[in-house]
Amino acid sequence: MTSTSTVGPGGTTEQVAPPPQRPPATPRRRRPGTLRRHAWQYVFLAPMLLLFVAFTLWPMVASWWYSFFDWDGVGPATEWVGFANFTEVLTSGRFWHAFRNSFLFSLVAICVEMPLALLVAILLNSRRLRGRNLYRLLLFLPVVTTTAVVGIVFAVLLDPAGGFINELLRSTGLVDSPVTFLSESSALPTVMAIDVWKGFGITLVYWLAALQTVPEDLYEASKVDGANGPQTLRHVTIPVIAPIGVVILLLTFQRSMNPFDLVQAMTQAGPNYATDVVATYIYRYAFNPELNAPRYGFACAAGVVFGVITLVMTALQGPLLRRQYLKGSR
């Protein structure tokens, strides 16, 4: 440590000692017993991790592995077939028919369910609407209802031989003869409509949450500028909730691509595979009791192909999601 010289008021030179320097900081050592202090946190996390590995991670890895075998589910998989299962899946007309139906479910959910849910959410978000909490509850009830039960109940209600809906239509004179809602030509639109009704509540909740992010100051400013309701919706509400809307689109797409439980409960992918989706296609080859020998390897390959296609379609929405977030953050 060296001193410095300064000139005093009378022209004299004074020695000024420099300020003391702090010793270099030593790296902070981890206190002993950290693992012991957080032991209970790890204990509570362990069941979730075990269940995730057992029922999510392992089935995914096993599906990839078994897809390269001609395996019937009995004993170890030994008959290696390479990419033969994938080739058969990609050249199967029934697979692409099932994929088309799965994609139509998502298309209807995005083009019909999402806009309709947004309009209803705007209505239910109004403070002037009386009983809006009751309406929200009634619209959300189908979401928490078991989908298999919904499918069975609607199959009974739509039955042309004594079903409640057909009896109601005939008693009111709207139809002269029973309507076969689950025929080969009308089964798919019918199941899609029920799927929209079933998932409408969760999309409605998403939109309601998005509408809560719009500042009231913007609405007040739009009123001062003389904007009417449609103009406020177009120039204020929609631009603010657009980034969240992309996330809602992604969630709706993922949910609607797999309507297995509803289709299986109502039509079992019939009649004549009219309502067949990829999930029922995979189920048929893996668990159909009519098959003499289940084709688990082929079913795994179909699941892997469907998963990869869905992943690619989801990833293509990434740039749109990022662009909307950047636009909303400006």
Write the topology of this structure:
Blueprint: E1 4-7, E2 13-16, H1 34-37, H2 39-66, H3 84-90, H4 93-124, H5 132-144, H6 147-157, H7 164-171, H8 187-211, H9 216-224, H10 229-256, H11 260-266, H12 278-287, H13 296-316, H14 318-329
Antiparallel strand pairs: 1-2
Helix pairs in contact: 3-13, 4-8, 4-10, 4-12, 5-8, 6-11, 8-10, 10-14, 12-13
Distance between the termini: 52 Å
Count the DSSP helices: 14
Structural class: mainly alpha
CATH H level, superfamily name: MetI-like
Query: Can you give the helix content as a percent range?
Result: 55-70%
Q: State the low-pLDDT regions, or none.
A: none
- CATH level 1 name: Mainly Alpha
Number of DSSP E strands: 2
Order of helical and strand elements: EEHHHHHHHHHHHHHH
The overall average pLDDT, rounded, is: 85
CATH topology: MetI-like fold
Biased composition (Pro residues): 17-26
InterPro entries: ABC_transporter_permease, MetI-like, MetI-like_sf
Domain ABC transmembrane type-1: 99-317
Subcellular location: Cell membrane
Quickly describe the structure.
It is a multi-pass membrane protein. It contains 14 helices and two strands, in the order ββαααααααααααααα.
Commentary on this structure:
Keywords: Cell membrane, Membrane, Transmembrane, Transmembrane helix, Transport. It comes from Micromonospora globbae. It is found in: Cell membrane. Residues 1-32 are annotated as: Disordered. With 330 residues, this protein is mainly α. It has one domain (84-329): MetI-like (MetI-like fold, Orthogonal Bundle). 65% of the residues lie in helices and 2% in strands. It has 14 helices and 2 strands. Strands 1-2 form a two-stranded antiparallel ribbon. A hairpin with a 5-residue loop joins β1 (4-7) and β2 (13-16). It starts with a strand and ends with a helix. 23% of the residues are buried.
